[in-house]
Amino acid sequence: xxxxxxxxxxxxxxxxxxxxxxxxxxxxxxxxxxxxxxxxxxxxxxxxxxxxxxxxxxxxxxxxxxxxxxxxxxxxxxxxxxxxxxxxxxxxxxxxxxxxxxxxxxxxxxxxxxxxxxxxxxxxxxxxxxxxxx
Length: 134
Fold this sequence. Notes:
- The chain has a domain at 37-105: Helix Hairpins (Orthogonal Bundle).
- Helices cover 43% and strands 6% of the residues.
- The chain has helices spanning 15-19, 63-75, 86-97, 106-133; strands at 2-5, 8-11.
- A hairpin with a 2-residue loop joins β1 (2-5) and β2.
- The model has no long low-confidence stretch (mean pLDDT 75).
């Protein structure tokens, strides 16, 4: 039995499900994978776009903008590193704003929450004052 709530699928397992041996096959990691365990920067100084540390940012609808901005910053030789990359970061930000479900804007959500709380407390204060004055 399963059902979907929002983006999540909830699956209920029965006792019988647990008693049945798993048919999942584990695939061993390829010891010859040049990107395995390399980290963000490869030995030759290139960026490892397959690094799990990037959280998938290098792929997806804004992957090219991310790569452009990150590459610019990585290879920047400016005194203030990355100060020559404003256009690339702006393009990345503009792209991400088109996909709020994929790239949540945490700062905006926090600001919105605090504004909502302020509005609620102001409304509550005003309501108390009106009751008190009658």
